[in-house]
Sequence to fold (216 residues):
Amino acid sequence: MNTNNQTCKDYTIRMEQPCDFSTVENLTRESFWNVYHPGCTEHYVLHCFRNNPSFIPELSLVMEKDGKIIGHVMYSKAVITLENGGILPSWTFGPISIHPDYKRQGYGLKLLNFSLEKAKSMGVGFVCIEGNIAFYKNAGFDLASKLKIHYHAEPKDVEVPYFLAKELVPGYLGGAEGTYCPPEGYFVAEKNPESFEAYEAQFSSKQKLVLPGQLG
Ligand SMILES: CC(C)(COP(=O)(O)OP(=O)(O)OC[C@H]1O[C@@H](n2cnc3c(N)ncnc32)[C@H](O)[C@@H]1OP(=O)(O)O)[C@@H](O)C(=O)NCCC(=O)NCCS
Fold:
């Protein structure tokens, strides 16, 4: 498999370029808007991550269809602190976005699977994510607790339904138990609300709505 890019009849997946940045951030905003909360902050998270040392530019991938960018995913480096005191490199990803006009047509899963293959080819054996298992189980993710990997913000003896993991290399963890902490950067909008508001003001106005299915 060529892991640099993927060209099919229907779409192309390639590395994001600087000239794509604003289009991709707008796509992320459109994709997440009102999904988990009224409005969204994921486009700002992505914007700030580009300057974060844990950001992996080779894994910031766009999906193009009919000359338009309809999907994007980014990865970053994280670590798992092992019970024995060691550290295990572990990558995470997100935001992952598919434009609202193209959701639930299989594109998100194709983009995710390609990105996981590429991550594996770059030498990482394990990835974890906070997300909805209804989508990620299709790419082989399961509850991280089943692999004895705990979430930093939850008790160790609790099965955390949103904390998911996948061994890209089977047996990579070797049964080791540990705790995952997401990289600095996912809470940038909450930490810098004024900077976020200034960034958000550049975009077209959209209505924030309270909708069923949003997180509490
Ligand atoms: C989540 C997202 C990336 C999925 O991409 P997609 O192209 O819409 O999903 P796919 O068509 O590839 O879905 C494949 C399967 O995953 C599951 N799935 C996908 N999205 C789902 C959702 N929102 N709820 C429950 N199951 C879902 C379904 O089983 C689906 O198959 P089906 O449509 O035949 O039932 C996309 O919907 C999106 O951008 N959502 C908003 C942003 C977001 O939530 N990102 C992820 C944050 S963790």
